[in-house]
Amino acid sequence: METWYYEVVSIDGDYANLKRTDIESDDLKLVARALLPPEIMEGSRLKYELMQYEIIA
User: In Gene Ontology terms, what is one molecular function of this protein (predicted)?
Assistant: First the structure.
């Protein structure tokens, strides 16, 4: 089981751009906000594990 870490770079309507923080990468991942915790904001840090995103401190 893999665990990936992201930071919310920007929010654009129903989508958010996420950047991986656990590896060196400049690529952004576009994710529907319906799949993300409702309280996210730009700068939020997320953990993706077991096909779910969760906010981490």
Answer: lyase activity
* Separation of alpha carbons 30 and 5, rounded Å: 14
Domain 3-56 in this protein, CATH class: mainly beta
pTM for the model: 0.92
Closest C-alpha among 15, 14, 49, 54 to residue 31 = 15
Residue 22: which of 48, 2, 45, 4 has the closest Cα?
Answer: 4
6-33 per-position pLDDT tens digit:
999 999 999 999 999 999 999 999 999 9
Boundaries of every domain in the chain: 3-56
